[in-house]
Amino acid sequence: MPRPTKCRMICRFPQTLEFAPTRDEGEKEPVILTVDEYETIRLIDREGLSQEQCSQRMQVARTTAQKIYDTARRKLADALVDGRPLKIEGGEYRLCNGTNRFCRSEGCYRQEIWRTFQRTKEAGVTRIAVPWDHGLIFQHFGRTEQFRLYDVKAGKIISSEAVGTDGHGHGALAEALYALQADILICGGIGTGAQAALASAGIRLYGGVTGEADAAVENLLAGVLEYDPEAHCSGPESRGQQTG
């Protein structure tokens, strides 16, 4: 019986999930690059790490990192040479929670997010986050400047606070919510990439909600919140399948 595949640690969820040739040459089957394959490209080709360093960041054996990287490079070559669309999805991975001892270097993206946004919470507390603008639910997740966090225990709100996004946008916001230990996000429009990032972080999404943030949270707790599971951004930030 083969051993189960070990989940690979990834530091940063992709910000763009789909790429396509500018010339329409008919439908071609897309190349699927998994999130862990993307991470090897990011770490080795973008960040300049060795395969050994990459394996340490992803917490896998060096030979495993090498195989993932080789597969990723072949897929990129297929997409470029054959002019095929490229999609990033799936794979065996888990998001880093900011405690990986191999990436505590200056400038580490995950460490920056974790230092900026980490919040603790009591046992038994459910944390609900809402993009917030003067009491209303801000309708474009990728351009959110402030979240309102509601801590709920035994079905009642026990505290709330506002947290600025510190200039972060798109995919970083989903990862910021992970660092904030949010369990639920209530929002308006949201891109497909951000939805995937939230799902990877185990954050439940209620999209397509409008009106007052406080009222939306109360309605959720009462089981009467109206939301749209197909909600998405229709503005510029949704183009190119960006995560926001």
Describe what you observe in this structure.
This protein is an alpha/beta fold and 244 residues long. Helix content is 32%, strand content 19%. The chain has helices at residues 35-46, 51-58, 62-82, 109-117, 171-179, 192-200, 213-222, and strands at residues 8-10, 18-19, 31-33, 86-88, 93-95, 126-133, 136-137, 146-153, 156-164, 184-186, 204-206. Strands 6, 7, 8, 9, 10 and 11 form a 6-stranded mixed sheet that branches. A hairpin with a 2-residue loop joins strand 6 (126-133) and strand 7 (136-137). Helix 1 packs across helix 3. The protein is globular. It starts with 7 loop residues before the first strand and ends in a 22-residue tail after the last helix.
Describe the secondary-structure layout:
Layout lengths: L7 E3 L7 E2 L11 E3 L1 H12 L4 H8 L3 H21 L3 E3 L4 E3 L13 H9 L8 E8 L2 E2 L8 E8 L2 E9 L6 H9 L4 E3 L5 H9 L3 E3 L6 H10 L22
Parallel strand pairs: 1-5, 3-4, 6-10, 10-11
Antiparallel strand pairs: 2-4, 6-7, 6-8, 8-9
Helix pairs in contact: 1-3, 2-3, 4-5, 5-6
Largest sheet: 6 strands, mixed
Helix count from the secondary structure assignment: 7
Percentage beta strand: 15-25%
Q: What is the structural class?
A: alpha/beta
Total strands: the figure is 11
Distance between the termini: 41 Å
Series of secondary-structure elements, N-terminal to C-terminal: EEEHHHEEHEEEEHEHEH
Kindly report the average pLDDT value.
84
- The portion of residues assigned to helices is 25-40%
Estimated radius of gyration = 19 Å
Which spans have pLDDT < 50 for at least 5 consecutive residues? Answer: 234-244
Shape: globular
